[in-house]
Amino acid sequence: MFALLAILPVLSVAILLVGLRWPASKAMPVCYIVAVLLALLIWEVPGLQVAAATVKGVVVALSLIYIIFGAILLLNTLHESGGLRVIRRGFVGVTADCRIQVIIIAWLFGSFIEGAAGFGTPAAVAVPLLVGLGFPAMAAVVAGMIIQSTPVSFGAAGTPILVGVNNGLSGSDTVSRFVAAGGFAEWSDFLAHIGVKVALLHGLAGTLVPLIVVVFMTRFFGPNRSVKEGLAVWKFAIFAAFAMTVPYMLVAVFFGPEFPTIVGGLAGLAIVVTAARRGFLMPDAANPWTFGDKATWEAEWSGTLNVDDDEVHATNFSIFRAWIPYILVGALLFVTRLKFLPFLGWLKGWTIQFAELFGTDITAKVQPLYLPGTIFVAVSLITWYLHKMDTHAYGRAWRDSLKTTAAASMALIFTVPMVQVFINSGGGGAGHAAMPMVLASGVADGAGQIWPLFAPFIGGMGAFIAGSNTISNMMFSLFQFEVGTQIGADPTLIVALQAVGGAAGNMICVHNVVAASAVAGLFGKEGDILRKTFWPFFYYALLTGVVGLIVFGMAR
Q1: Which residues contact 394 (CB under 8 A, 6 or more apart)?
Q2: CA nearest 140: which of 531, 540, 517, 506?
Q3: CA angle, 355 as apex, 349 and 359 as ends, to 5°?
Q4: How confident is the model over 77-91, as pLDDT tens digits?
Q5: 356, 362 in Cβ contact below 8 A?
Q6: Which of 78, 102, 250, 530 has the fewest CB atoms within 10 Å around its CB?
Q7: Could you tell me which residues come within 8 angstroms of residue 43 by beta carbon, excluding any fewer than 6 positions away?
Q8: What is the largest CA-CA distance in the chain?
Q9: Tally of CA atoms within 13 A in the half-sphere of 378 that contains its CB
Q10: SS3 label, residue 354
Q11: CB-CB neighbours of 423 under 10 Å
Q12: What pTM was estimated for this model as a whole?
Protein backbone atom coordinates (compact mmCIF):
# COMPACT_ATOMS: atom_id res chain seq x y z
CA MET A 1 0.00 0.00 0.00
CA PHE A 2 2.79 2.40 0.90
CA ALA A 3 4.58 1.64 -2.38
CA LEU A 4 1.39 2.67 -4.18
CA LEU A 5 1.21 5.84 -2.10
CA ALA A 6 4.88 6.58 -2.78
CA ILE A 7 4.25 6.57 -6.51
CA LEU A 8 1.64 9.35 -6.25
CA PRO A 9 4.09 12.26 -6.78
CA VAL A 10 5.51 10.49 -9.85
CA LEU A 11 2.03 9.64 -11.06
CA SER A 12 0.84 13.20 -10.58
CA VAL A 13 3.70 14.45 -12.76
CA ALA A 14 2.80 11.95 -15.47
CA ILE A 15 -0.93 12.71 -15.37
CA LEU A 16 -0.68 16.50 -15.30
CA LEU A 17 2.27 17.01 -17.65
CA VAL A 18 1.84 14.12 -20.07
CA GLY A 19 -1.80 13.12 -19.77
CA LEU A 20 -3.50 16.49 -19.35
CA ARG A 21 -0.67 18.44 -21.02
CA TRP A 22 -0.55 21.11 -18.36
CA PRO A 23 2.41 23.47 -18.58
CA ALA A 24 5.10 22.74 -15.98
CA SER A 25 4.54 26.15 -14.41
CA LYS A 26 1.00 25.03 -13.52
CA ALA A 27 1.56 21.29 -12.92
CA MET A 28 4.64 21.35 -10.71
CA PRO A 29 3.13 23.44 -7.88
CA VAL A 30 0.36 20.82 -7.65
CA CYS A 31 2.91 17.97 -7.65
CA TYR A 32 4.87 19.75 -4.93
CA ILE A 33 1.74 19.95 -2.78
CA VAL A 34 1.09 16.20 -3.32
CA ALA A 35 4.63 15.36 -2.15
CA VAL A 36 4.34 17.65 0.88
CA LEU A 37 0.98 16.22 1.95
CA LEU A 38 2.27 12.65 1.67
CA ALA A 39 5.38 13.53 3.65
CA LEU A 40 3.44 15.30 6.42
CA LEU A 41 0.33 13.14 6.72
CA ILE A 42 1.40 9.61 5.71
CA TRP A 43 5.15 9.48 6.30
CA GLU A 44 4.70 11.83 9.30
CA VAL A 45 7.84 13.77 8.43
CA PRO A 46 8.32 16.77 10.75
CA GLY A 47 7.27 20.07 9.22
CA LEU A 48 10.74 21.54 9.73
CA GLN A 49 12.27 18.70 7.71
CA VAL A 50 9.83 19.37 4.86
CA ALA A 51 10.67 23.08 5.07
CA ALA A 52 14.41 22.31 5.03
CA ALA A 53 14.02 20.06 1.97
CA THR A 54 12.03 22.82 0.27
CA VAL A 55 14.71 25.42 0.96
CA LYS A 56 17.38 23.08 -0.38
CA GLY A 57 15.28 22.60 -3.50
CA VAL A 58 15.01 26.36 -3.99
CA VAL A 59 18.80 26.71 -3.70
CA VAL A 60 19.32 23.98 -6.32
CA ALA A 61 16.66 25.53 -8.55
CA LEU A 62 18.39 28.92 -8.41
CA SER A 63 21.62 27.23 -9.46
CA LEU A 64 19.85 25.70 -12.46
CA ILE A 65 18.30 29.04 -13.36
CA TYR A 66 21.76 30.61 -13.29
CA ILE A 67 23.06 27.94 -15.70
CA ILE A 68 20.09 28.51 -18.00
CA PHE A 69 20.69 32.26 -17.98
CA GLY A 70 24.37 31.84 -18.82
CA ALA A 71 23.65 29.50 -21.74
CA ILE A 72 21.02 31.83 -23.19
CA LEU A 73 23.27 34.86 -22.69
CA LEU A 74 26.11 33.23 -24.62
CA LEU A 75 23.81 32.37 -27.51
CA ASN A 76 22.28 35.87 -27.59
CA THR A 77 25.77 37.38 -27.45
CA LEU A 78 26.78 35.36 -30.51
CA HIS A 79 23.56 36.33 -32.21
CA GLU A 80 24.14 40.04 -31.62
CA SER A 81 27.81 39.84 -32.63
CA GLY A 82 27.05 37.99 -35.86
CA GLY A 83 29.06 34.96 -34.76
CA LEU A 84 26.02 32.71 -34.91
CA ARG A 85 25.54 33.56 -38.57
CA VAL A 86 29.14 32.54 -39.29
CA ILE A 87 28.73 29.27 -37.35
CA ARG A 88 25.59 28.52 -39.32
CA ARG A 89 27.44 29.10 -42.59
CA GLY A 90 30.24 26.83 -41.40
CA PHE A 91 27.86 23.96 -40.77
CA VAL A 92 26.23 24.49 -44.12
CA GLY A 93 29.75 24.28 -45.56
CA VAL A 94 30.10 20.81 -44.06
CA THR A 95 26.51 19.87 -44.83
CA ALA A 96 23.19 21.63 -45.12
CA ASP A 97 21.48 18.39 -44.07
CA CYS A 98 19.91 18.85 -40.65
CA ARG A 99 20.05 15.09 -40.01
CA ILE A 100 23.84 15.22 -40.05
CA GLN A 101 23.97 18.50 -38.14
CA VAL A 102 21.97 17.08 -35.23
CA ILE A 103 24.32 14.09 -34.98
CA ILE A 104 27.41 16.28 -34.90
CA ILE A 105 26.07 18.88 -32.46
CA ALA A 106 23.76 16.92 -30.16
CA TRP A 107 25.38 13.48 -30.13
CA LEU A 108 29.10 14.32 -30.44
CA PHE A 109 29.56 17.89 -29.22
CA GLY A 110 26.91 17.25 -26.57
CA SER A 111 28.77 14.13 -25.43
CA PHE A 112 31.99 16.07 -24.98
CA ILE A 113 30.22 18.76 -22.94
CA GLU A 114 28.53 16.05 -20.85
CA GLY A 115 31.91 14.46 -20.16
CA ALA A 116 33.41 17.80 -19.13
CA ALA A 117 30.56 19.26 -17.07
CA GLY A 118 27.52 16.97 -16.79
CA PHE A 119 24.46 18.04 -14.80
CA GLY A 120 22.34 19.03 -17.82
CA THR A 121 25.00 21.30 -19.34
CA PRO A 122 24.90 19.60 -22.79
CA ALA A 123 21.32 20.74 -23.28
CA ALA A 124 22.29 24.24 -22.20
CA VAL A 125 24.96 24.29 -24.92
CA ALA A 126 23.61 22.12 -27.74
CA VAL A 127 19.93 23.09 -27.64
CA PRO A 128 20.37 26.85 -28.23
CA LEU A 129 23.05 26.15 -30.84
CA LEU A 130 20.60 23.94 -32.73
CA VAL A 131 17.95 26.66 -32.49
CA GLY A 132 20.51 29.09 -33.81
CA LEU A 133 21.09 26.80 -36.79
CA GLY A 134 17.41 26.92 -37.68
CA PHE A 135 15.98 23.92 -35.80
CA PRO A 136 12.48 24.28 -34.32
CA ALA A 137 12.82 24.85 -30.58
CA MET A 138 10.90 21.68 -29.71
CA ALA A 139 13.01 19.59 -32.09
CA ALA A 140 16.17 20.98 -30.51
CA VAL A 141 14.95 20.16 -27.00
CA VAL A 142 13.90 16.61 -27.96
CA ALA A 143 17.30 16.01 -29.57
CA GLY A 144 19.11 17.48 -26.58
CA MET A 145 17.18 15.23 -24.19
CA ILE A 146 17.58 11.97 -26.15
CA ILE A 147 21.37 12.18 -26.30
CA GLN A 148 21.48 12.53 -22.49
CA SER A 149 21.77 8.79 -22.14
CA THR A 150 24.96 7.04 -23.28
CA PRO A 151 27.36 9.86 -22.25
CA VAL A 152 25.79 10.48 -18.84
CA SER A 153 27.24 7.69 -16.68
CA PHE A 154 30.73 9.13 -17.19
CA GLY A 155 29.64 12.76 -17.26
CA ALA A 156 31.43 15.43 -15.25
CA ALA A 157 34.60 13.32 -15.31
CA GLY A 158 32.85 10.19 -14.04
CA THR A 159 30.82 11.78 -11.24
CA PRO A 160 27.82 9.37 -11.45
CA ILE A 161 30.21 6.46 -10.79
CA LEU A 162 32.90 8.08 -8.64
CA VAL A 163 30.43 10.00 -6.48
CA GLY A 164 27.02 8.39 -7.03
CA VAL A 165 27.86 4.66 -6.96
CA ASN A 166 30.79 5.25 -4.63
CA ASN A 167 28.73 6.99 -1.94
CA GLY A 168 25.81 4.66 -2.52
CA LEU A 169 27.88 1.55 -1.75
CA SER A 170 30.40 2.89 0.78
CA GLY A 171 30.06 1.79 4.38
CA SER A 172 28.13 -1.43 3.70
CA ASP A 173 29.52 -4.59 5.34
CA THR A 174 27.95 -6.69 2.59
CA VAL A 175 29.75 -4.72 -0.11
CA SER A 176 33.03 -4.71 1.84
CA ARG A 177 32.97 -8.50 2.11
CA PHE A 178 32.25 -8.82 -1.60
CA VAL A 179 35.15 -6.50 -2.46
CA ALA A 180 37.52 -8.47 -0.25
CA ALA A 181 36.37 -11.82 -1.65
CA GLY A 182 36.65 -10.53 -5.20
CA GLY A 183 40.34 -9.79 -4.81
CA PHE A 184 40.10 -6.07 -5.58
CA ALA A 185 43.28 -4.42 -4.31
CA GLU A 186 41.70 -0.99 -4.02
CA TRP A 187 38.17 0.35 -3.73
CA SER A 188 38.85 2.31 -6.93
CA ASP A 189 39.48 -1.00 -8.73
CA PHE A 190 36.05 -2.16 -7.63
CA LEU A 191 34.43 1.03 -8.96
CA ALA A 192 36.36 0.68 -12.24
CA HIS A 193 35.08 -2.92 -12.52
CA ILE A 194 31.50 -1.65 -12.29
CA GLY A 195 32.38 1.14 -14.72
CA VAL A 196 33.49 -1.34 -17.37
CA LYS A 197 30.14 -3.13 -17.21
CA VAL A 198 28.36 0.21 -17.39
CA ALA A 199 30.38 1.18 -20.49
CA LEU A 200 29.70 -2.12 -22.26
CA LEU A 201 25.95 -1.87 -21.63
CA HIS A 202 25.96 1.73 -22.86
CA GLY A 203 28.03 0.78 -25.88
CA LEU A 204 25.37 -1.72 -26.87
CA ALA A 205 22.32 0.49 -26.28
CA GLY A 206 24.01 3.65 -27.53
CA THR A 207 24.57 2.21 -30.99
CA LEU A 208 21.09 3.29 -32.05
CA VAL A 209 20.87 6.63 -30.21
CA PRO A 210 22.05 8.87 -33.12
CA LEU A 211 19.66 7.07 -35.48
CA ILE A 212 16.80 7.44 -33.00
CA VAL A 213 17.49 11.18 -32.76
CA VAL A 214 17.43 11.54 -36.54
CA VAL A 215 14.26 9.48 -36.95
CA PHE A 216 12.51 11.58 -34.31
CA MET A 217 13.53 14.73 -36.20
CA THR A 218 12.12 13.51 -39.51
CA ARG A 219 9.05 11.78 -38.09
CA PHE A 220 7.79 14.51 -35.76
CA PHE A 221 9.24 17.72 -37.23
CA GLY A 222 9.92 17.04 -40.90
CA PRO A 223 7.80 18.44 -43.72
CA ASN A 224 6.70 14.90 -44.63
CA ARG A 225 6.54 13.42 -41.09
CA SER A 226 8.58 10.53 -42.48
CA VAL A 227 10.43 7.77 -40.62
CA LYS A 228 11.93 6.67 -43.91
CA GLU A 229 13.76 9.97 -44.36
CA GLY A 230 15.47 9.41 -41.03
CA LEU A 231 16.34 5.79 -41.74
CA ALA A 232 17.90 6.89 -45.03
CA VAL A 233 21.03 8.00 -43.13
CA TRP A 234 21.29 4.87 -40.99
CA LYS A 235 24.79 4.05 -42.17
CA PHE A 236 26.14 7.47 -41.18
CA ALA A 237 24.24 7.38 -37.88
CA ILE A 238 25.63 3.97 -36.90
CA PHE A 239 29.11 5.09 -37.97
CA ALA A 240 28.78 8.19 -35.77
CA ALA A 241 27.62 6.02 -32.87
CA PHE A 242 30.66 3.74 -33.12
CA ALA A 243 32.97 6.74 -33.57
CA MET A 244 31.97 7.78 -30.06
CA THR A 245 31.24 4.50 -28.27
CA VAL A 246 34.32 2.49 -29.32
CA PRO A 247 36.89 4.91 -27.84
CA TYR A 248 34.45 5.45 -24.95
CA MET A 249 34.46 1.73 -24.09
CA LEU A 250 38.21 1.37 -24.57
CA VAL A 251 38.93 4.22 -22.17
CA ALA A 252 36.56 2.71 -19.57
CA VAL A 253 38.28 -0.68 -19.84
CA PHE A 254 41.89 0.53 -19.74
CA PHE A 255 41.82 3.86 -17.89
CA GLY A 256 38.79 3.93 -15.59
CA PRO A 257 35.58 5.96 -15.29
CA GLU A 258 36.90 9.54 -15.39
CA PHE A 259 37.29 10.20 -19.12
CA PRO A 260 35.30 7.76 -21.33
CA THR A 261 32.73 10.37 -22.34
CA ILE A 262 35.22 13.22 -22.81
CA VAL A 263 37.51 11.10 -25.01
CA GLY A 264 34.59 9.47 -26.81
CA GLY A 265 33.03 12.83 -27.63
CA LEU A 266 36.29 14.41 -28.85
CA ALA A 267 37.35 11.36 -30.85
CA GLY A 268 33.90 11.09 -32.38
CA LEU A 269 33.91 14.76 -33.36
CA ALA A 270 37.29 14.45 -35.07
CA ILE A 271 36.35 11.25 -36.92
CA VAL A 272 32.82 12.19 -37.95
CA VAL A 273 33.46 15.80 -39.02
CA THR A 274 36.43 14.65 -41.11
CA ALA A 275 34.33 11.90 -42.67
CA ALA A 276 31.45 14.28 -43.37
CA ARG A 277 33.75 16.76 -45.12
CA ARG A 278 34.95 13.97 -47.38
CA GLY A 279 31.44 12.75 -48.11
CA PHE A 280 31.84 9.37 -46.38
CA LEU A 281 28.42 7.69 -46.04
CA MET A 282 26.80 11.10 -46.50
CA PRO A 283 23.35 11.64 -48.02
CA ASP A 284 22.94 13.31 -51.40
CA ALA A 285 24.36 16.83 -51.04
CA ALA A 286 22.11 18.07 -53.84
CA ASN A 287 19.00 17.27 -51.78
CA PRO A 288 19.73 18.10 -48.14
CA TRP A 289 17.00 17.35 -45.63
CA THR A 290 15.71 20.38 -43.72
CA PHE A 291 12.72 21.28 -41.56
CA GLY A 292 11.16 23.25 -44.37
CA ASP A 293 9.95 26.82 -44.38
CA LYS A 294 9.13 28.23 -40.94
CA ALA A 295 5.71 29.25 -42.20
CA THR A 296 4.84 25.53 -42.42
CA TRP A 297 5.89 24.71 -38.84
CA GLU A 298 3.29 23.99 -36.20
CA ALA A 299 2.93 26.88 -33.77
CA GLU A 300 3.89 24.76 -30.75
CA TRP A 301 7.31 23.98 -32.19
CA SER A 302 8.68 27.49 -31.82
CA GLY A 303 9.91 29.21 -28.69
CA THR A 304 10.61 32.81 -27.76
CA LEU A 305 14.34 32.49 -28.45
CA ASN A 306 14.71 34.44 -31.68
CA VAL A 307 17.94 33.91 -33.60
CA ASP A 308 16.82 34.43 -37.17
CA ASP A 309 19.53 34.65 -39.80
CA ASP A 310 19.09 38.33 -40.70
CA GLU A 311 21.42 40.78 -42.36
CA VAL A 312 21.40 43.09 -39.32
CA HIS A 313 23.76 40.68 -37.57
CA ALA A 314 25.96 39.94 -40.58
CA THR A 315 29.72 39.96 -40.12
CA ASN A 316 32.85 39.07 -42.01
CA PHE A 317 35.07 37.56 -39.32
CA SER A 318 36.44 34.02 -39.63
CA ILE A 319 34.69 30.83 -38.62
CA PHE A 320 37.43 30.14 -36.06
CA ARG A 321 36.78 33.49 -34.41
CA ALA A 322 33.06 32.73 -34.39
CA TRP A 323 33.67 29.35 -32.74
CA ILE A 324 36.08 30.70 -30.10
CA PRO A 325 33.29 31.14 -27.49
CA TYR A 326 32.21 27.51 -27.69
CA ILE A 327 35.83 26.34 -27.83
CA LEU A 328 36.46 28.37 -24.68
CA VAL A 329 33.39 26.88 -22.98
CA GLY A 330 34.55 23.34 -23.70
CA ALA A 331 38.14 24.06 -22.68
CA LEU A 332 37.21 25.87 -19.47
CA LEU A 333 34.70 23.22 -18.44
CA PHE A 334 37.38 20.59 -19.03
CA VAL A 335 40.35 22.17 -17.25
CA THR A 336 38.32 23.40 -14.28
CA ARG A 337 37.12 19.85 -13.56
CA LEU A 338 40.58 18.22 -13.53
CA LYS A 339 41.56 17.29 -9.98
CA PHE A 340 45.32 17.62 -10.51
CA LEU A 341 45.02 21.28 -11.55
CA PRO A 342 44.50 24.07 -8.98
CA PHE A 343 41.43 25.58 -10.69
CA LEU A 344 39.05 23.06 -9.15
CA GLY A 345 40.07 24.01 -5.61
CA TRP A 346 39.97 27.73 -6.36
CA LEU A 347 36.49 27.64 -7.87
CA LYS A 348 35.08 25.42 -5.12
CA GLY A 349 36.75 27.54 -2.48
CA TRP A 350 33.88 29.98 -2.35
CA THR A 351 30.95 27.98 -1.01
CA ILE A 352 27.67 29.44 0.20
CA GLN A 353 26.33 26.90 2.68
CA PHE A 354 23.17 26.65 4.72
CA ALA A 355 24.11 23.90 7.18
CA GLU A 356 21.55 21.82 9.10
CA LEU A 357 18.56 23.81 7.93
CA PHE A 358 16.00 24.38 10.71
CA GLY A 359 17.88 21.98 12.98
CA THR A 360 17.67 19.02 10.56
CA ASP A 361 20.50 17.11 8.90
CA ILE A 362 19.64 18.67 5.53
CA THR A 363 22.30 21.03 4.21
CA ALA A 364 22.05 23.22 1.14
CA LYS A 365 25.13 24.64 -0.51
CA VAL A 366 26.11 26.27 -3.75
CA GLN A 367 29.51 27.00 -5.29
CA PRO A 368 28.77 29.90 -7.65
CA LEU A 369 32.19 30.09 -9.31
CA TYR A 370 32.16 26.35 -10.06
CA LEU A 371 28.74 26.39 -11.74
CA PRO A 372 28.80 26.20 -15.56
CA GLY A 373 26.73 29.38 -15.56
CA THR A 374 29.78 31.35 -14.43
CA ILE A 375 31.80 30.00 -17.34
CA PHE A 376 28.99 30.92 -19.76
CA VAL A 377 28.83 34.48 -18.40
CA ALA A 378 32.63 34.84 -18.44
CA VAL A 379 32.84 33.63 -22.04
CA SER A 380 30.02 35.99 -22.99
CA LEU A 381 32.05 38.91 -21.61
CA ILE A 382 35.13 37.69 -23.49
CA THR A 383 33.05 37.43 -26.67
CA TRP A 384 31.88 41.03 -26.23
CA TYR A 385 35.54 42.05 -26.46
CA LEU A 386 36.74 39.54 -29.08
CA HIS A 387 33.86 40.21 -31.46
CA LYS A 388 34.13 43.97 -30.90
CA MET A 389 30.45 44.36 -30.05
CA ASP A 390 28.95 47.75 -29.29
CA THR A 391 27.53 48.30 -25.82
CA HIS A 392 23.94 48.69 -27.03
CA ALA A 393 23.94 45.29 -28.78
CA TYR A 394 25.52 43.56 -25.79
CA GLY A 395 23.00 45.17 -23.45
CA ARG A 396 20.22 43.86 -25.65
CA ALA A 397 21.68 40.32 -25.31
CA TRP A 398 21.50 40.66 -21.50
CA ARG A 399 17.95 42.01 -21.52
CA ASP A 400 16.65 39.29 -23.83
CA SER A 401 18.39 36.60 -21.77
CA LEU A 402 16.98 37.84 -18.46
CA LYS A 403 13.50 37.95 -19.95
CA THR A 404 13.70 34.38 -21.26
CA THR A 405 15.18 33.06 -18.02
CA ALA A 406 12.51 34.68 -15.88
CA ALA A 407 9.83 32.75 -17.77
CA ALA A 408 11.44 29.44 -16.73
CA SER A 409 11.74 30.26 -13.06
CA MET A 410 8.23 29.43 -11.89
CA ALA A 411 8.35 25.79 -13.00
CA LEU A 412 11.82 25.12 -11.59
CA ILE A 413 11.10 26.83 -8.26
CA PHE A 414 8.47 24.16 -7.59
CA THR A 415 9.97 21.20 -9.49
CA VAL A 416 13.21 20.88 -7.54
CA PRO A 417 11.69 21.39 -4.06
CA MET A 418 9.16 18.66 -4.90
CA VAL A 419 12.08 16.36 -5.69
CA GLN A 420 13.87 17.24 -2.44
CA VAL A 421 10.77 16.63 -0.31
CA PHE A 422 10.33 13.25 -2.04
CA ILE A 423 13.96 12.23 -1.46
CA ASN A 424 14.14 13.51 2.13
CA SER A 425 10.96 11.83 3.33
CA GLY A 426 12.63 9.13 5.43
CA GLY A 427 12.88 9.07 9.21
CA GLY A 428 9.35 10.31 9.86
CA GLY A 429 7.08 9.32 12.74
CA ALA A 430 5.49 6.52 10.69
CA GLY A 431 8.86 4.74 10.54
CA HIS A 432 8.95 4.30 6.77
CA ALA A 433 12.00 4.62 4.54
CA ALA A 434 12.08 7.54 2.10
CA MET A 435 9.43 7.38 -0.64
CA PRO A 436 11.83 6.39 -3.47
CA MET A 437 13.15 3.44 -1.44
CA VAL A 438 9.65 2.29 -0.48
CA LEU A 439 8.63 2.43 -4.12
CA ALA A 440 11.71 0.50 -5.28
CA SER A 441 11.23 -2.15 -2.56
CA GLY A 442 7.65 -2.68 -3.70
CA VAL A 443 8.81 -3.33 -7.26
CA ALA A 444 11.57 -5.70 -6.07
CA ASP A 445 9.12 -7.74 -3.99
CA GLY A 446 7.01 -8.37 -7.07
CA ALA A 447 9.85 -8.98 -9.55
CA GLY A 448 11.79 -11.79 -7.86
CA GLN A 449 14.17 -13.64 -10.19
CA ILE A 450 13.50 -11.38 -13.16
CA TRP A 451 14.79 -8.35 -11.24
CA PRO A 452 17.61 -7.60 -13.76
CA LEU A 453 14.88 -6.65 -16.23
CA PHE A 454 13.53 -4.03 -13.81
CA ALA A 455 16.84 -2.73 -12.43
CA PRO A 456 17.39 -0.11 -15.19
CA PHE A 457 13.84 1.17 -14.79
CA ILE A 458 14.46 1.80 -11.07
CA GLY A 459 17.59 3.74 -12.02
CA GLY A 460 15.56 5.67 -14.57
CA MET A 461 12.84 6.39 -12.01
CA GLY A 462 15.50 7.76 -9.67
CA ALA A 463 16.78 10.13 -12.34
CA PHE A 464 13.22 11.08 -13.33
CA ILE A 465 12.56 12.07 -9.74
CA ALA A 466 15.91 13.52 -8.69
CA GLY A 467 17.01 14.98 -12.02
CA SER A 468 20.42 13.39 -11.68
CA ASN A 469 22.05 10.07 -12.47
CA THR A 470 24.45 10.74 -9.61
CA ILE A 471 21.63 11.14 -7.07
CA SER A 472 19.79 8.13 -8.47
CA ASN A 473 22.94 6.03 -7.99
CA MET A 474 23.42 7.36 -4.46
CA MET A 475 19.81 6.47 -3.59
CA PHE A 476 19.59 3.03 -5.14
CA SER A 477 23.07 1.47 -5.63
CA LEU A 478 23.14 -0.32 -2.26
CA PHE A 479 19.52 -1.40 -2.65
CA GLN A 480 20.33 -2.81 -6.12
CA PHE A 481 23.46 -4.53 -4.81
CA GLU A 482 21.53 -6.24 -2.01
CA VAL A 483 18.72 -7.36 -4.33
CA GLY A 484 21.33 -8.82 -6.68
CA THR A 485 22.89 -10.74 -3.78
CA GLN A 486 19.51 -12.06 -2.65
CA ILE A 487 18.55 -13.46 -6.07
CA GLY A 488 21.99 -14.96 -6.70
CA ALA A 489 23.01 -12.53 -9.46
CA ASP A 490 26.35 -10.79 -9.80
CA PRO A 491 25.57 -7.69 -7.72
CA THR A 492 28.00 -5.54 -9.73
CA LEU A 493 25.96 -6.30 -12.85
CA ILE A 494 22.78 -5.16 -11.09
CA VAL A 495 24.50 -1.96 -9.94
CA ALA A 496 25.71 -1.41 -13.51
CA LEU A 497 22.13 -1.79 -14.75
CA GLN A 498 21.09 0.77 -12.14
CA ALA A 499 23.73 3.23 -13.39
CA VAL A 500 22.77 2.73 -17.03
CA GLY A 501 19.07 3.15 -16.27
CA GLY A 502 19.85 6.26 -14.24
CA ALA A 503 21.70 7.71 -17.21
CA ALA A 504 18.82 6.95 -19.57
CA GLY A 505 16.42 8.47 -17.05
CA ASN A 506 17.86 11.89 -17.85
CA MET A 507 15.82 11.71 -21.06
CA ILE A 508 12.61 11.92 -19.03
CA CYS A 509 13.82 13.93 -16.05
CA VAL A 510 11.26 16.67 -15.46
CA HIS A 511 13.53 19.48 -14.40
CA ASN A 512 15.99 18.69 -17.24
CA VAL A 513 13.09 19.01 -19.68
CA VAL A 514 11.99 22.25 -18.03
CA ALA A 515 15.54 23.61 -18.10
CA ALA A 516 16.22 22.60 -21.71
CA SER A 517 12.87 24.06 -22.79
CA ALA A 518 13.72 27.30 -20.99
CA VAL A 519 17.05 27.55 -22.81
CA ALA A 520 15.15 27.28 -26.10
CA GLY A 521 12.49 29.75 -24.95
CA LEU A 522 9.86 27.02 -25.18
CA PHE A 523 7.32 27.08 -22.35
CA GLY A 524 4.22 25.06 -21.56
CA LYS A 525 5.07 22.11 -23.83
CA GLU A 526 7.01 19.99 -21.34
CA GLY A 527 4.40 17.23 -21.43
CA ASP A 528 4.59 16.97 -25.22
CA ILE A 529 8.36 16.63 -24.98
CA LEU A 530 8.08 13.91 -22.32
CA ARG A 531 5.62 12.03 -24.54
CA LYS A 532 8.37 11.81 -27.15
CA THR A 533 11.41 11.18 -24.98
CA PHE A 534 9.70 8.42 -22.99
CA TRP A 535 10.04 5.98 -25.88
CA PRO A 536 13.82 6.30 -26.32
CA PHE A 537 14.11 5.89 -22.54
CA PHE A 538 11.91 2.78 -22.66
CA TYR A 539 14.03 1.32 -25.48
CA TYR A 540 17.23 2.01 -23.55
CA ALA A 541 16.05 0.60 -20.22
CA LEU A 542 14.32 -2.41 -21.78
CA LEU A 543 17.26 -3.41 -23.99
CA THR A 544 19.80 -3.20 -21.16
CA GLY A 545 17.37 -4.94 -18.80
CA VAL A 546 16.93 -7.82 -21.26
CA VAL A 547 20.70 -8.09 -21.65
CA GLY A 548 21.07 -8.15 -17.88
CA LEU A 549 18.43 -10.87 -17.59
CA ILE A 550 20.16 -12.97 -20.27
CA VAL A 551 23.56 -12.62 -18.59
CA PHE A 552 22.00 -13.54 -15.23
CA GLY A 553 20.31 -16.57 -16.78
CA MET A 554 23.54 -17.75 -18.45
CA ALA A 555 25.48 -17.43 -15.19
CA ARG A 556 23.04 -19.54 -13.17
Answers
A1: 77, 80, 384
A2: 517
A3: 175
A4: 988 888 878 877 777
A5: yes
A6: 250
A7: 425, 426, 428, 430, 432, 435
A8: 70
A9: 14
A10: strand
A11: 23
A12: 0.82
